[in-house]
Design a protein that fits this description.
It contains seven helices and no strands. The longest helix is centred in the first third of the chain and has 20 residues. The chain is mainly α and 101 residues long. The chain starts with a helix and ends with a helix.
């Protein structure tokens, strides 16, 4: 990691930049193997995005349907449809990996 910090501002098409790319790939592979982080469940991902963007349940109506449907989904009593997942992904930026979990 110290070497990555040293090379962080390397210019493209230089040996230093090539070294940086290689080290970053190795760290990514290592972390993927030893520190894999599972995607959060869909409801937690939606709630996290709501918190990030300062959204209320009412703000989700255009993406999920009625107010009662939003409540049912956030309480885990109703499943997301494919259309709802597409809306949340495209319009709110909720990661697809989380929505499909």
């Amino acid at each position: 990691m110290k070497r990555i910090d040293e090379l962080f501002d390397a210019k493209p098409n230089t040996k230093e930049f090539d070294d940086l790319e290689l080290l970053v790939m190795l760290v990514d592979i290592y972390e993927g193997k030893h520190h894999h982080i599972e995607a959060p469940d869909p409801i937690e991902a939606i709630k996290f995005r709501m918190e990030q963007q300062g959204l209320s349940k009412t703000d989700l109506i255009p993406f999920l349907g009625t107010r009662s449907r939003v409540t049912e989904i956030l309480n885990g009593k109703r499943k997301l449809t494919v259309n709802m997942m597409k809306n949340l992904y495209h319009k709110l930026g909720v990661p697809a990996e989380s929505l499909l979990a």
